[in-house]
Structure formats: C-alpha cells, structure tokens
C-alpha cells in the first residue's frame, strides 16, 4: 500500500487531535502534563481490562469457537466500564490537584474544571486512538493488497475515520462527564456510559468477526506474528528469509520473499 | 573617546585602499587574462569584507552606554564579531591590523561591570556580594575567564517561594520532557529502520554469560550473573571516581571524560553513520565521511567540554545519550538487559539516598569545595553564560550555584567508563519580584545523562522486541514520562536531588511486560474484529 494511504489515513485519524493539541495544549506546560496524565490513566484502564480478559481466557482454557466471541464481548464491556471508572478517578484527582493549585497560587487563576475536562478527554482520546490505529497504520506501509478476500477495500479509510470519531467522542465524553460530576447529575454518567457502549458495539455491517488465523512469518530466529488482518489483506513480511504462510496456502499470492 | 574617531578614520582609509586595489586587480586581470591576478583580487575581497565587519563593530561599540537590556552596552559586540573577523582574516592569511586593541576595550569594560552589577543590587544583602566573589574565584576551575557573572541571590519574601516552585515546576517538567522524548525518538527510529542494532553480534566483556542456553532456569541464572557483574563494574567505577575527586585528581577525571566523549563522538558516530548509510543504500566517499565525522566530533567536543550555544550543547548531549543507548541495546543480551535495568534503578536509589552512598559523597564533597560537578555529563535545561553576551544572566549563576545546594547527588557510570549521572537537580531560586520575564524562564533543572541512556534503552528494547508492535513502545514511553513527572514533583516537594531512574524504570518495566503479554493479544483481537473501545 502506498505512502499516500499511510499519510492520508494518518492525518484523517490524528489530524484534528494534532491541531487541537498544537493550538490549545502545547502552549501551556501544565496542560501538557495533564494530557499525558490522562493518557496514562487510559493506559492503566486498558491494562486492567486486558488482564481480566486474559484471566477469563485462561479460565476457559483458550477454547476456540463461540466462547472466544463471548469472551471478547465481555472484554469490551468490561473495558468500557473500567475506562469510565478511571475517568471518574481522574476527575477526583484533578479536583484535588486544582484545589491544591488554587491554595498555592491564589492570585494566578488555576485551570478551570471545564478546561481540565477537555484536556483529560483529549488525553484519553489520543491514547485510545493511537492504540487502536497505529499498528494498522504501520501495516499500511508494507506490501499487500486490501480486500483480496472480498472484504471492503476501504479498510484503512474506515478505520481512520472510526479512530477520528473515537478520539473526538472521548473529548466530548470527557467534557460531559466532568460537567455532570461537578453538578452532581449522576444520570448523565449513565448516559455517557451507554453512548460509549453504543459506539463500541458498532461492528461493520457484515456482522461476523474477521475470520481466523494469524499470519505467521517465520524468521531464522523467532516467530513473528503479524497483527491479524489476514482476510482483509495479504501481508508479506519485509524481513529477509521469511515466508508468509496462510491457510489455505493458495490464498496468498505472495509466496515467499 | 578620541580613540574611536582615530581608529574609525584608519579603518576607513584601509578599506578604501584595499577596495581600490581590488578593483584595479580585477580590471588588470581581465585585460591581461591573468588568472593569478584574478585570484589575488578575490583575496583582497575577503580583506575588504573583514574591514567592513570591523567598521560595523566599531559603530556598535560607540554605543557604550549601559541600557536596561545590555548592561555592558554594546562594547562586547566587538568581541562578538571578533571570531568572524578572525576567520575572514585567517582565510586571507594576512596580518590584520588590530585597531583599537580588543584587549583594551575589554579591559575598560571589565572594571565597570562588577561595580555596575553590584550597584544594581545595592538593596540586597551584602552576603550576595560575598557569594559573587567566591564564585568568581571558582571560575578558574571552570577555566573560562570571560564569565562575568553578576550574582545576587537576594532574600525573597517567603510566600513567593512556593508559588515560584510550582510555576517553575510545570515548565521544567516540559523542559525535560522534550529532550527525553527526542532521545527516545532517535533511538526508536534507528532501531526500527537500521537492522544493525537489532542483530546479535556478540556481547560486551561485562556480560560474559551467554543466554543461548537450553533451559529457562539456566538462562535466568546467566542473566542474573551478568547483571551482578555489570552492577559491580559500575559501583567500582563510581567509587573510583569519588576517590579521585576527593583527592583532587581533576586532570585525570577530565582526561577520562574527554577520552570517553572522543570515543562516543568519533567512533560510535562513524559506526552509526555507516550503518544508516548502508540501510538507505547511500554511497559516501571516505573524504566526505572524514570531513563530516571530523566536523561533527570536533564541534561536539567543543560544545560539551568547553563552551557553546546551549541548544547545540543540548543536542549533542542528546545524541551521545542516544548513541550510548543504541550500543547497550545491541550488545546486552535480552534478559540481562531487563534485569540490569531493574538492578540499576535499585542501585540508583541506594546510591543517591543513602548517607554513605558514593554519589551522595561525591556531591557533598563538591559542595564543600564550592565547585560545579562535571558539566559534560549533565543535561542542563538552563541557559549558560556564553562569551560576548551582554545580557545580565542571573540564571547561569543559578545553574552554577547548583553544586552549592546542600544535597546534590550524581550517580553511576556506564560500562565505557563515562560517568553518567542519572538523577535530577533543581537549582535554588534566584528569582526576585522585579525580575524580567526572560530571566525567570531561564532557570532550569538538570538531568544526568545516565537517565537519558537508560530510559532510551528501555524504550528501544520495547521497540526492538521484534513483533512490529508499536503499542508496547508507546506504553513504555508514556510510562517513562509519567515517572519523570512524578520524580520532578517529588523534587519540587523535597527540594533535594533525587534519583530519576527508579520511578520511571519501574513504571516502564511494568508497562512493558504487561503490554507485551496482556494488552497486545487483546488489542490484536479487537483490531481483527474491527472493534473500537
């Protein structure tokens, strides 16, 4: 896939976030710190939810079949709950921090809660978007053909737009969430959670998850597992002496390199 | 100021004569088709340019009144333009007539300056003047007689102190985020593109045990042994350094530092450049390579060990940290590298915080003697005094005062005998209420180069992990930044030097292992189902 796809999708997904960062956050050091702290909180929430998913998989002994699908749905639900919990935790932390800032700097205006809500939402969003999309982006630089098995050839574009949507939604959710916490309207938190669940439930129209198989490329020393996008495109590893093996073998037009 | 009028006349005469000769030579060369004449005329052109520069400098120097911004007036501009003149003159290889000797103009500038400085801070305590004098005597150690530091750490109202702390806190965190991020970006970009640094071509002598063993237990044992050896080497070298420092063997230490920088700046740069060119299939002939490496290395040595623009010095420090980190990533075996990272953060904690730790002793000794600690091994985000600057810069004095602070510590070496200091300092606050904004911004915090190196090793190893997975790298990156942020917060709270490695490396290690084993399968599964959380 071409550099045009790479750059185009990268800018579609991360352009607005980058612009928001450059124009509103990069000017103030304190905001940068809060942004990175927000990203860190999202990361921790992801870590905990992956841990639970992993444990659930271990408990069910890694059986293939519909179990995996249910486990995945469970994982997604849990992850969203934990994300919102961490958003709340970050809200409490920011509240304490801003009170601390106010007591230390009485004459200088501490950042308002709305600004902190925006910054934290952006932090969550950027981290979420980056984690979802960066591997796909890096794959788009390599050789391959999109949609070779009849899937949508607009895979990258769709993913890029979805990532953009998720980033912006996190910003909005952050603002709404913090505002609801400030005004003690707890039902709004539920609305945020439900909308988050709704968005995550948006799987592509053909319903079924992408079929099995991780493309494994063997090098002389280690197994490299490419991120799974096998039915959508055929990956050829760029490392020397590797073979891209698929099942069925005939499906891959690139046999060896 | 009759001197100026006379000299201006002389300069003008010289300029006119030289210019006339030049024109004449050009004409004659065209008429007689003589190449030699033409080349000589260009030679005279360079003389003309040098004289023009001298005239401009002289014009600047006329404005000798001290202003708010330039406390020495523009006298120093002459000195500043001197290098360019010297270069031009050198190129022409003529002897230039030194009109109105620089030294005399410097001398006259010298004596008013201390007095004007002191007068400017008339209202401050006498102790500040004494401090300045003691600093001046320390200048010999620094080996730069041109440093005009006007001191003055005036007493400040106590309420301002905390405010200044926090105000400086966020800015300094960012001042450290940027170089750390740059270093990591260089290392990750190199690891991802240049294959040389991920190939295993042998090990260092400090990690003699191989990891190509049959069983996991054996491998673990070997890596622990490697770590022990490495840490022992580091401890021994640190103690050696402390002993040398205590016995005032400055020349030896400086020689050692210079040798290590030489190796880094020339040998490792040469290897790095070679590998990068190989990766992108760019052909470069040896003369060009020699010229490039020579220039890079020479400027680096000057900037790091002597004086140079702050930005350039910072850039060089970042580059040598990145090079060192790349060497570690290449030559440390897999598991040993992780265990070493863990062990070195523990060592850092111990060496910096324990009363009998070698680094603590080093710093206390430096403080007793009122000396700065090897500036070549610390990344400083503050501005330092450069030659020819006419601006009053209390921050450099703040940076110099750094070693005077009661508990400053440094630490650990890397295996190549270059002491690197993985910890963080905060200089005391020189601010006073009426200060101008640009001076406030120049106070900085310092971070040892060892910190840069080990942070980059961690992130680089995460990038080199061979899965083509970027999430782990990013997770480690965020973890390290947050650790650094927390360390600086603690620094602002405790106001003493702290080890910068433990928190960041702990976070980094936790995030690396959990991201690699837990998050990666989860995100891969989500991506394959096109689910977005």
Automatic annotation (TrEMBL), chain B:
Protein name in UniProt: Presenilin
One GO process term, biological-process aspect: protein processing
Disordered as annotated region, ranges: 101-147
UniProt similarity note: Belongs to the peptidase A22A family.
Record's bilayer topology term: Multi-pass membrane protein
Biased composition (Polar residues): 105-114
Membrane-crossing residue ranges in chain numbering: 12-36, 42-61, 173-191, 224-245, 252-274, 286-304, 311-329, 335-354, 474-494, 500-519
Listed EC numbers: 3.4.23.-
GO molecular function: aspartic endopeptidase activity, intramembrane cleaving; monoatomic cation transmembrane transporter activity
Function: Probable subunit of the gamma-secretase complex, an endoprotease complex that catalyzes the intramembrane cleavage of integral membrane proteins such as Notch receptors.
The species this protein was found in: Fukomys damarensis
Domain of life the protein comes from: Eukaryota
Domain Cation efflux protein transmembrane: 12-79
């Amino acid at each position: 896939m071409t550099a045009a796809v790479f750059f185009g999708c990268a800018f579609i997904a991360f352009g607005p976030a980058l612009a928001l960062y450059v124009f509103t956050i990069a000017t103030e050091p304190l905001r940068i710190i809060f942004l990175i702290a927000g990203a860190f909180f999202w990361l921790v929430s992801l870590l905990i939810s992956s841990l639970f998913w992993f444990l659930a998989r271990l408990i069910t002994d890694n059986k293939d079949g519909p179990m995996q699908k249910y486990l995945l749905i469970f994982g997604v639900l849990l992850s969203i709950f934990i994300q919102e919990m961490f958003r709340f935790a970050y809200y409490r932390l920011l509240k304490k921090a801003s009170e601390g800032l106010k007591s230390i700097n009485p004459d200088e205006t501490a950042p308002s809660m709305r600004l902190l809500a925006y910054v934290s939402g952006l932090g969550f969003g950027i981290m979420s978007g980056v984690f979802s999309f960066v591997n796909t982006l890096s794959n788009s630089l390599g050789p391959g053909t999109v949609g070779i098995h009849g899937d949508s050839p607009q895979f990258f574009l769709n993913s890029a737009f979805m990532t953009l949507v998720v980033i912006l939604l996190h910003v909005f959710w952050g603002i709404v969430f913090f505002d609801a916490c400030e005004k003690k309207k707890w039902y709004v938190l539920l609305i945020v959670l439900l909308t988050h669940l709704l968005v995550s439930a948006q799987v592509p129209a053909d319903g079924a998850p992408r079929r099995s198989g991780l493309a494994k490329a063997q090098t002389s020393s280690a197994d490299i597992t490419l991120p799974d996008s096998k039915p959508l495109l055929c990956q050829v590893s760029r490392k020397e002496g590797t073979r891209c093996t698929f099942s069925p073998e005939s499906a891959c037009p690139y046999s060896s390199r | 100021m009759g001197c100026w009028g006379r000299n201006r006349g002389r300069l003008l005469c010289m300029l006119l004569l030289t210019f006339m000769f030049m024109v004449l030579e050009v004409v004659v060369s065209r008429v007689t088709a003589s190449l030699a004449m033409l080349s000589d005329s260009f030679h005279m052109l360079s003389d003309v340019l040098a004289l023009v520069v001298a005239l401009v400098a002289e014009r600047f120097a006329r404005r000798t009144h001290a202003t708010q911004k330039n406390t020495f007036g523009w006298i120093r501009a002459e000195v500043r333009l001197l290098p360019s003149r010297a270069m031009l003159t050198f190129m022409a290889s003529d002897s230039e007539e030194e009109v109105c000797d620089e030294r005399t103009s410097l001398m006259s500038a010298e004596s008013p300056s201390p007095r004007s400085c002191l007068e400017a801070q008339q209202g401050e305590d006498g102790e500040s003047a004494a401090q300045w004098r003691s600093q001046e005597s320390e200048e010999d150690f620094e080996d730069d007689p041109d440093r005009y530091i006007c001191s003055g750490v005036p007493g400040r109202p106590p309420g301002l102190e905390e405010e200044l702390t926090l105000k400086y806190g966020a800015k300094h965190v960012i001042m450290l985020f940027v170089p750390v991020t740059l270093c990591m970006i260089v290392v990750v970009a190199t690891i991802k593109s240049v294959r040389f640094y991920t190939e295993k071509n042998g090990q260092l002598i400090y990690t003699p045990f191989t990891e190509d063993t049959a069983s996991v237990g054996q491998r673990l044992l070997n890596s622990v042994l490697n770590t022990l050896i490495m840490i022992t080497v580091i401890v021994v070298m640190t103690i050696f350094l402390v002993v040398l420092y205590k016995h005032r063997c400055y020349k030896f230490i400086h020689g050692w530092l210079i040798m290590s920088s030489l190796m880094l700046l020339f040998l490792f740069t040469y290897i790095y450049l070679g590998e990068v060119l190989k990766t992108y299939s760019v052909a470069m002939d040896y003369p060009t390579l020699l010229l490039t490496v020579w220039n890079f290395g020479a400027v680096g040595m000057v900037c790091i060990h002597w004086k140079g623009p702050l930005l350039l010095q910072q850039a060089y420090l970042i580059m040598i940290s990145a090079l060192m980190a790349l060497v570690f990533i290449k030559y440390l075996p897999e598991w040993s590298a992780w265990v070493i990272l863990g062990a070195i953060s523990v060592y850092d904690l111990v060496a910096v915080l324990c009363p009998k730790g070698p680094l603590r002793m080093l710093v206390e000794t430096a403080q007793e003697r009122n000396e700065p600690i090897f500036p070549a091994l610390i990344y400083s985000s503050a501005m330092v005094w450069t030659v020819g600057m006419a601006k009053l810069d209390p921050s450099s004095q703040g940076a110099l005062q750094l070693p005077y602070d009661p508990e400053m510590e440094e630490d650990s070496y890397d295996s190549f005998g270059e002491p690197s200091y993985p910890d963080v300092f905060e200089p005391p606050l020189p601010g006073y209420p009426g200060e101008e904004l640009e001076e406030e911004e120049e106070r900085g915090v310092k971070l040892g180069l060892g910190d840069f190196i080990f942070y980059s090793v961690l992130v680089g190893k995460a990038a080199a992990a061979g899965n083509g997975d970027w999430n782990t790298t990013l997770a480690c990156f965020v973890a390290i930044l947050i650790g650094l942020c927390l360390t600086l917060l603690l620094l602002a709270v405790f106001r003493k030097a702290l080890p910068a490695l433990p928190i960041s490396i702990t976070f980094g290690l936790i995030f690396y292992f959990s991201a690699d084993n837990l998050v990666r399968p989860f995100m891969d599964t989500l991506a394959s189902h096109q689910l977005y959380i």
